[in-house]
Amino acid sequence: MHSFLEEFYMKIWQKTSLITWLLSPLSLLFWLISQVRKRLYSWHILQSYRSPVPVLVVGNISVGGNGKTPVVVWLVEQLQARGVKVGVVSRGYGGKIKTFPQLVTHESSAEMVGDEPVLIVQRTNAPLAISPNRQQSIELLLSQFELDIIITDDGLQHYALQRDMEWVVVDGVRRFGNSFVLPAGGLRELPSRLKSVDAVICNGGEPKPNEHLMTLEPSDAINLLTNERKPLSEFIQPCVAIAGIGHPPRFFTMLEKLGLPLTHTQGFADHQDFDKTQLLELADSQTPLLMTEKDAVKCKEFAPTNWWYVPVSAKFSENSTACLLDPILQKLGK
């Protein structure tokens, strides 16, 4: 979806208006169809797949970037540090490849397999497979790796896959907008769905009772061309920032709070395919161009010396970390 359209819809979905009520009959239809489909799976009329190893879904109930990928990276790293062998499956959204399932490696092209899978592999080294059919991905991983658990990046509404645990990531600032499901609102399922999941993670903002607050902490900026690391505090000259993520303002606000002098910010559609020419027009060779790590995996091949990316890492309190990890480790007997 074009970034302008995304922005337009996001604004409409944040509040109740005449458009909301005009679209509400379609939202009712969407909700009814999704409920019937869910019931057909729970009654075993539609067939679902049970993995031989436990499956944990990290998903959301709303459209747009809520911060799932940092949660997946954090979870994989935490489990790996405790001796758990973790595999990841992803839809590979935004990738151009047509043959599934596919293993994603450090050498994989983000253009072909999607930006998020490449980012997760580069950060965690975990075995990762992509396919719109999660069963195919899981079977491919288990045929080549000995794994204790599968983490699925997104797929909360993919009821063809049975799961042992569900985590939902919520944007702590935008929350649920006008609380309507598509197309009158930005929800795939109603907020009441949160009552049935194992954990609700609140990305920024103020967490509600029983939610785990996650903050995204940036590290040094890293040069796309040279891999040089540079503290963000050293960016004192005018900078340009871009973001092709679900909610670009989150990235720009983070940089501004850190005191970076941004002269221009440019949001793009999530999973945007970048063209070198369009980005060169935004910043001359003397002006640092800052981007997210997710954007960087698509731009490294043609980056000049003034392009930098800013990795972020999920952070949780000690109490939340224990609450999130203990049930998984107990299930795995670790």
From TrEMBL:
Signal peptide: none annotated. InterPro entries: LpxK (IPR003758), P-loop_NTPase (IPR027417). Keywords: ATP-binding, Kinase, Lipid A biosynthesis, Lipid biosynthesis, Lipid metabolism, Nucleotide-binding, Transferase. ATP binds at S62, V63, G64, G65, N66, G67, K68, T69. One of its GO terms (biological process) is lipopolysaccharide core region biosynthetic process. The keyword ATP-binding applies. Pathway: Glycolipid biosynthesis; lipid IV(A) biosynthesis; lipid IV(A) from (3R)-3-hydroxytetradecanoyl-[acyl-carrier-protein] and UDP-N-acetyl-alpha-D-glucosamine: step 6/6. The keyword Transcription regulation does not apply. Pfam families: LpxK. It catalyses: a lipid A disaccharide + ATP = a lipid IVA + ADP + H(+). GO terms for molecular function: ATP binding; lipid-A 4'-kinase activity. One of its GO terms (cellular component) is plasma membrane. Its EC number is 2.7.1.130. Belongs to the LpxK family. NCBIfam families: lpxK. HAMAP family: LpxK. Transfers the gamma-phosphate of ATP to the 4'-position of a tetraacyldisaccharide 1-phosphate intermediate (termed DS-1-P) to form tetraacyldisaccharide 1,4'-bis-phosphate (lipid IVA). This is Tetraacyldisaccharide 4'-kinase. The gene is lpxK.
